[in-house]
Amino acid sequence: MRLRSILMAAPLALALPAWAQQPTPQPGEQLWDRVVAVVGDTTLLYSDVLMELEAMQAQGQTVPTDPAQRAALVRDIVARRVDDLMLLEAARAAAVEVEATDVLGAVERQIQQVQQGFGSEEAFLQALQQSGRTMQEYRQTLTQQYTDQTMIQRFMQQRVQTMAPPPVSEDEIRQFFEAQRERLGSRPATVSLQQAILKPQPSDSARMAARRRADEILAELRRGGDFEVLARRHSQDPSAPQGGMLGWFRQGQMVRPFEAMAYALRPGETSPVVETEFGYHIIKLEKARGPERQARHILIRPEVTDADVARTRALADSVAAAARAGASLTELAERHGTPADQRIARDVVLDRLPPAYGTTVAAAEVGAVVGPFELNEGTGPSFVVAKVTGRQAEGAYTLADVREQVRERVVQQKQIERLLAELRQNTHIRISL
Q: What is the pTM of this model?
């Protein structure tokens, strides 16, 4: 069982030098184009396969020069591309929607990555010119490829969600783990924590002032004000430069009051003022797509003064003292408003801890209480008191470390293979190698 190429983070055809070079034939191989596969109404050309071979080489993968081994690799590429084309045809038939805004970020990140690989924008543009492409054409090509990829991913998610999970045996889990063991690399050092995160709270007068400002903006909207313009002008959220656009989200991704209002609106409607832990929101629902919503918002945050910050720092000192004296840190965290999903952190990779945790947590022994230390994530300071509850040293992964993840991957592969088998029964496929 092999993972489908479409499940990769980015298609191989987007690799750095693939667009800057024409496919080059191997010794004894003629460079002429022909159809190597037909899937429904779509054809796969031999030049497409050669470009993927070029992309593999660009990524540092070994491409065999032995004719028999190379032919086997070509057959494998064609088989994978046929599966991808079959999924794309099915996604189009199912009218899966993908908008330009859904892939815009991925396209721009890919362009930046490619440009960095060339060393300069000038070198990148020169390579594009040599390949006969303009930047606009390159961006259009990437946009189409990422759109197709996103369509396939959404189609598979929709179909897989309707499938009953297949049974998975212990032998299948072990076999998959052994096959992937070398790719897993070393297990990083991790730490487990209990923590209380105390965020300075604004005064009642600051809350009232922020609420009045939000009410004034809402009144302006109801008089016909442009939501995007007002969001850029007034919102105190990082989305302000984008006119308050939050993109697509599902239930469970937003704080509850925000989510409840967003899902109660109809496309085009604007909410009343909604209060959350972040401040006061005005929400405009742009679009609805099944369980997903696309919305804009305007956020007005109550002002937090230096006195509010100092008061919270003193409270954090008392929480740390109580924890060191034996009080339950999780109970203290709950008492002082730390969200439930932030009170316990298990098996966090040390290198991925926020910088504020730094050497304080990294060097602490199991059972030690550290802090308070300041944490600033762009919305003002918070103060953290943490207790180290466990550590795991760096080393080789064992099956016990990743059993559940392996089981999920095996289930996913079985479901994808089942989906592909169903599609093959209803799709015209012809391979000519």
A: 0.57
